[in-house]
Amino acid sequence: MSTTALGNHILVEFMNCDPHVMNDVAAIERDMVGAARKAEATVINSTFHHFSPYGVSGVVVIQESHLAIHTWPEYGYAAVDVFTCGDMNAWIAFDHLKECFGAKSYSAIEMKRGSVNLLTRNDFDITTAREKAAEWRNPDFYTRNVWFTDKDEDQALSLRFTGDVFFDVQSPFQRVRILESTKYGKMLALDDMVMTTIKDEFHYHEMISHPSLFTLQNAKNVLVIGGGDGGTVREVLRHSNIEKVTMVEIDGEVIKACKEHLPEIAAAFDDPRLELIVDDGIAFVKNAPDAVYDLLIVDGSDPVGPAEGLFSVDFYQNCYRTLKADGILVAQGESPKFNEKAFAELNQTLQSIFGANNAPVGLFFVPTYPTGMWSFQYGLKGSVDPRKVTNTDAIKSFVAEKGLRYYNEDIHFSTFALPNFVKQLIQK
Ligand code: SPD
């Protein structure tokens, strides 16, 4: 590729093609993606549409730019363009498509795009660009089809969002964003993972806190690691017996974003019983004294990036040490369907530290997490066990008085009922 142009664009007319192929959206998508791969492009995504009664349009987005097509089967014709940058050879894609489409004739022109001699290079400042994007609001006359996708290599959960970005900051730890999803309202995303949304956050925050607090009955001193959105401490502080909550969140940008844009979740940061520390939770627990906490909650994100250490044996050994004799640990336990390995390994860790019968798992549902099925995993240091509570009347009146929307006395027990495949994942 010449360094005098940014890109190379070939515009192709394929004529006298097989009309059936020209009307077969699946075959055309396969051939276009195949052409990109044959030319050693990195395929990012493809979108193809079949028109009624005939005609296909589609685009393959590649790391090196794009391939696009529009077909008129009734004329056996396809208009194709291949835009490339870097070392990719667009003519390899051309040859592949000519063969796949059975084109008996064709014409093509090649253009260099973005003549470097005519352009001035700017220093591109990503922070300014993101600030500008965050200021932009949809004036309502654009129809958007923008999706936020939380995924691994094989599965995903996508939420449509308005395109409005309220906060977008690359912190030293992760990309922190507040976006607006159409169904679930504003949401916090860390890197490309959904953390919480306005409309379903209560599933998570009620279930991370109330089952263990009703088990302990009179917890006074609580440590929360992570939980920067504030939802967990909001729920813990609903209990009048709590005297002190220490919350240690590594990323101050998460707290800032949620205070500004998710005030319904970040609702208890001003409670005088809360001590908020912006620091590394793993180091905090390592240096914490022995036997001081009634309850230790690990409200971390997934085991990539800054939360990776929240899944280590070392960390949970320190959690065990700093709990009181009858103390309880509750940790964000991942999904037995989305992340079986992390789910099972965490349980093995907890079993090895707290004992095989002292590491129960509670399942609950979060519609905005991949697969919807999520877990909290417990470590019971003493004999106090959430599966054996008897104070259901206290739960009932608390639920009614506080207007809880997920947790109740039935859910308290049913969360610990596990499908067989989950039991197998965590067998002793
Ligand atoms: N994949 C999502 C894992 C959830 C992690 N914590 C969410 C924070 C809510 N306080």
Structure report:
With 428 residues, this protein is an alpha+beta fold. Helix content is 30%, strand content 32%. The protein has helices at residues 19-22, 25-38, 90-101, 126-135, 201-216, 231-236, 252-261, 281-287, 313-322, 340-354, 392-402, 409-414, 420-425; strands at 5-15, 43-50, 56-62, 65-72, 77-84, 105-115, 146-151, 156-170, 175-181, 185-190, 193-197, 221-226, 244-249, 274-278, 293-299, 323-332, 361-365, 373-380. The strands form three sheets. Strands 14-13-12-15-16-18-17 form a seven-stranded mixed beta sheet, sandwiched between helices. A six-stranded antiparallel beta sheet has the order 2-3-4-5-1-6, with helices on one face. A hairpin with a 5-residue loop joins strand 2 (43-50) and strand 3 (56-62). Helix 9 crosses helix 10. The N and C termini lie far apart (59 Å). Spermidine (SPD) binds at residues 193, 195-196, 204, 227, 229, 231-232, 299, 301-302, 332, 369.
Small molecules in complex:
spermidine
As a percent range, the share of helical residues equals 25-40%
Number of strands: 18
Give the strand order, joined by hyphens, for the main sheet: 14-13-12-15-16-18-17
Q: Please state the CA-atom Rg, rounded to the nearest Å.
A: 27 Å
Q: If you average the pLDDT, what whole number results?
A: 93
> N- to C-terminal separation?
59 Å
Low-confidence stretches: none
Number of helices: 13
Shape, per Cα inertia axes: elongated
Strand content range? 25-35%
